[in-house]
From TrEMBL:
Record keyword Signal present: yes
Similarity section: Belongs to the UPF0065 (bug) family.
Signal peptide (UniProt feature, chain positions): 1-27
Lineage, opening ranks: Bacteria, Pseudomonadati, Pseudomonadota, Betaproteobacteria, Burkholderiales
Keywords of this entry: Signal
One protein family per Pfam: TctC
Source organism per UniProt: Zwartia hollandica
Superkingdom field: Bacteria
Alphabetized Gene3D superfamilies for the sequence: Bordetella uptake gene, domain 1 (3.40.190.150), Periplasmic binding protein-like II (3.40.190.10)
Protein name per its UniProtKB record: Tripartite tricarboxylate transporter substrate binding protein BugD
């Protein structure tokens, strides 16, 4: 018998066993302090509302408070870069939408790699968008809006939450479809933009139903259409933008949860477990429904599904964004 070879084998087995016990122990003890969920937009916006709903349920599952921290700016890249550089211990997470997949094309000097600098936790929900105008904007339907937009051009003010935000992406696609250029008015988030729209300081906003349903129901804004492929059950009389005359126009907002790369596997698994539990919570499902959001199927709630989705979305939007010619340094 080769004693040294046997000894090395025993040491390797002991090391693997020790690592397994350590991993199991880590998963059982995590978390021992509050977890921060970073939102890359202003408080009161659609992603913020969804994040707070999710955080309340994950708090119950994890046994520690999930704290919301808003780090708005640069279409979500400031918050994304912050989380990418945070300690890989599972205590700093990010919730982000389509901006994670559009940033690699929109920003020439992106301070993170969307595919390699994060630990993927899972997809959360899909949210359709709505095209809104201020209450006293002259057009009363989509056909009238198209004619009005083509006549007014850059006299129309279009709000967004900054380069890379889905409101900006929707606005870019809208202008491409119409063949006109509006005057873009960036805000730190669509929460402040909605306040300006309701107040009459802005003309048009394209935003998620999580943010717009309350104002639509209160009739403080004009609703021209929804961006989904089909009409929404909770807005059955509202046509899609396709029906309104914008061929092939479709955009749905998706949200995912991320952490810094190299979070220990047991901790990452615990976070995914907490996310899945939250997405089964009747309170979360009900709140999401009230906001017009749809919880993704369980098969899409995995880290692997989120990573594959981001990769596919980068490839999908890159040619459209390049055609629009909008970049940031």
């Amino acid at each position: 018998m080769n004693f040294s070879k046997t000894l090395r084998g025993l040491m390797l087995a002991a090391g693997l066993l020790s690592a397994a016990f350590a991993g199991s122990s880590m998963a059982q003890t995590f978390p021992t302090k509050p977890v921060t969920l970073v939102v890359p937009f202003a408080a009161g916006g659609p992603t913020d509302i969804l994040a707070r709903t999710l955080a309340a349920s994950m708090t119950k599952e994890l046994g520690q408070t999930v704290v919301i921290e808003n780090r708005a700016g640069a279409g979500g890249t400031i918050a994304s870069a912050f989380v990418a550089k945070a300690p890989a211990d599972g205590y700093t997470l990010l919730i982000h939408h389509n901006g994670m997949a559009t940033a690699p094309t929109l920003y020439r000097k992106l301070p993170f790699n969307a595919l390699t600098d994060f630990t993927y936790v899972g997809l959360v929900a899909d949210v359709p968008m709505t095209l809104l105008g201020r209450k006293d904007l002259p057009p009363n339907n989509m056909a009238e809006f198209i004619a009005y937009a083509k006549a007014q051009g850059n006299k129309i003010n279009l709000a967004n939450a900054g380069l890379g935000a889905v409101s900006q992406l929707c606005g870019t696609l809208l202008q491409q479809a119409l063949g006109v250029g509006f005057t873009a008015i960036p805000y730190s988030g669509t929460g402040p933009a909605m306040i300006a729209l309701v107040g009459g300081q802005l003309d048009v906003l394209c935003d998620q139903t999580t943010q717009t349903l309350a104002q639509i129901k209160a009739k403080t804004v004009k609703l021209y259409g929804v961006t989904s492929a089909e009409r929404l059950s909770y807005l059955p009389d509202t046509p899609t933008l396709r029906e309104g005359g914008l061929k092939d126009f479709e955009i749905v907002v998706w949200h995912g949860v991320y952490g810094p790369k190299n979070i220990p596997a047991p901790v990452a698994a615990r976070l995914n477990q907490a996310l899945k539990a939250a997405l089964k919570d009747p309170a979360v499902i009900a709140k999401a429904g009230d906001l017009g959001a749809v919880i993704v199927p369980e098969a899409k709630q995995t880290p692997e599904a989120l990573q594959a989705w981001v990769k596919d979305e980068i490839a999908k939007w890159a040619p459209l964004l390049k055609a629009a010619g909008q970049y940031a340094d």
